[in-house]
User: What shape does this take?
Amino acid sequence: MSKTVELIYQGKSYTLPIIEGTCGEQAVDISALRNTTGLITYDPGFVSTGSCQSDITFLDGEKGILLYRGIPIEQLAEHSNFIETSFLLIHGHLPNQSELDYFKHHVTHHSMVHESIKNLYDGFPNNPHPMAVCSAVVGSLATFYQDQLNVQNEREIEIAIHRLLAKLPTIAAYSYKKSIGQPFSYPQNALSYTENFLHMMFSNPCEDYEVDPLVAKVLDILLILHADHEQNCSTSTVRLVGSSRCNLYSSVSAGIYALWGPLHGGANQAVIEMLQTIQDAGGNVRQFVDKAKDNDDPFRLMGFGHRVYKNFDPRSKIIKKLAHEVFDKLGLNEPLLDIALQLEEIALKDDYFISKKLYPNVDFYSGLIYKALQIPVNMFPVMFAIGRLPGWIAHWIELQGDKDFKIGRPRQIYQGQEKTDYTPLKKRK
Ligand code: CMC
Assistant: This one.
């Protein structure tokens, strides 16, 4: 017998169905609530609200499980690569050889951007934040392909997917080159996805640049770890924008802005800045842990806590191990790593963090690795965006084909002034 919930309101009883997910999640279906009862629900930050049914990613925050299309993140990080994982997220299954070859070919051969796009970079002030530039330039793609924005046309969507995956690294690397006043490096189709990105970031016309295979491999793993995380802030943004049947380029552009904030993808930059502040202030880690615990102090430990993970973030476990490997293999001595380790140790033993279930999240160590790979700090959120792109695309596509599709339009509970008459200017106090 299917499960239901009984709601009693003003003496009348209403039966609400329960929806069950394949991994055991249960949700009360309130979609008919307003029509049948006149009531709406109130849930700031959507803490208890499921916005959709999705086949893409499962995560269990209590057990620290993350699955892309059913496959554990640990296995993908070990055996897959970012291109294959992108295919998996977008198409729902691991590709066979010919599917992979086709996908790889197109994601590689769309990497060049229209020459006019380069002029856009000159319109920005000197040293703009690359997240702002990336979002603006990705948004501009809708103007370059404006006759191919039909959200119901599968072929146009397929090309948009290839273009976005191929061009975002180019757009991102150009934003960095612009900020340091160097000429743009064109993409090299003979290189792998991450090798090509590193080449565009660090090569210049005056000398040869050889990509370190370790750096390219580590970057690839980091992108896999970022590739999707179900209904997070930026993915929900992409879905909400896409729910107006807005094209993929513009929806992704909005997602990049949502990711930028320090509570979301901007946290990896904020972590490094916080570690630097602690070091500059003499390295007294305990003092900063106490600040984070003080309710009257807005300071928070960046890279700690997560809306969903209340045990540990499985991505942070992989990244922590990777960080040690990178530092050992590259022979680096990073003083901020020591501070990070101290901070983690103190926080994990502290009652405040234990009772609130605040553990290091994906951003705690990713910034340190990016730093070791010579990625500039303000590019960290951009790295997150490149990684999250296949997830955004997968969710946008799923939404467009959803049998329960509706434009996203939450309700509100109005608490403002009741109906009042207009006061002419002369009569106002
Ligand atoms: N340092 C100190 N206290 C914290 C922290 C922190 N990093 N995170 C949460 N808390 C406290 C918070 O003050 C609150 O205390 P109280 O119950 O006394 O009011 C309690 O823990 C619950 O926090 P919340 O803000 O209600 O939790 P949330 O689920 O709304 O926020 C979060 C999640 C990630 C925004 C938050 O933990 C945070 O601000 N962390 C730092 C920023 C960060 O690392 N963000 C990256 C998230 S992972 C990557 C991604 O998916 O984008």
User: Anything to note?
Assistant: The chain has a mean pLDDT of 94.
